């Protein structure tokens, strides 16, 4: 079980960055395991429902998840049903040209190093997608 947090800076306007990150259709651009993400048009318990397809440890997984975007606070939260107690939040801050992205994740899954590596990769993918440059 664990809680994880990672942060990076992105050369972007925070509002424009949040708009990009909160568009469900862009999730596969920066979540490496995500293959498809489509809003279902449904709301459940106040959350926007999303149909997702991901490849996790070589296995294709399809399911329902939820996502909430708060543009005023520039926060995005998400989660899914299942045994891993999976959920997270993303927050965009900073100033134009020097935005920050903080990702927090909670899971009951015990693979700490793999989860940390996944968060680092997600933040690197955000930088690459938005800035158009590699961070390595």
UniProtKB/TrEMBL annotation:
Sequence segments annotated as region (Disordered): 76-95
Compositional bias (Gly residues): 82-95
SUPFAM superfamilies, per the entry: Bet v1-like (SSF55961)
Domain of life of the native organism: Bacteria
Pfam families from the UniProt entry: Polyketide_cyc2
Name of the protein in question: SRPBCC family protein
Organism lineage: Bacteria, Bacillati, Actinomycetota, Actinomycetes, Pseudonocardiales
């Amino acid at each position: 079980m664990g809680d994880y947090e990672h942060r990076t800076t992105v050369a972007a306007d925070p509002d424009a960055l949040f708009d990009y990150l909160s568009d469900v259709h862009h999730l596969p651009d920066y979540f490496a395991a995500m293959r498809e993400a489509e809003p279902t048009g449904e709301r459940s318990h106040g959350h926007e429902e999303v149909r997702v397809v991901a490849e996790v440890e070589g296995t294709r997984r399809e399911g329902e998840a939820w996502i909430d975007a708060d543009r005023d606070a520039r926060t995005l939260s998400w989660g899914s049903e299942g045994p891993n107690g999976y959920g997270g939040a993303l927050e965009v801050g900073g100033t134009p040209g020097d935005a920050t992205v903080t990702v927090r994740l909670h899971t009951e899954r015990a693979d700490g190093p793999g989860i940390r590596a996944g968060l680092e990769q997600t933040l690197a993918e955000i930088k690459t997608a938005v800035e158009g440059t590699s961070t390595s």
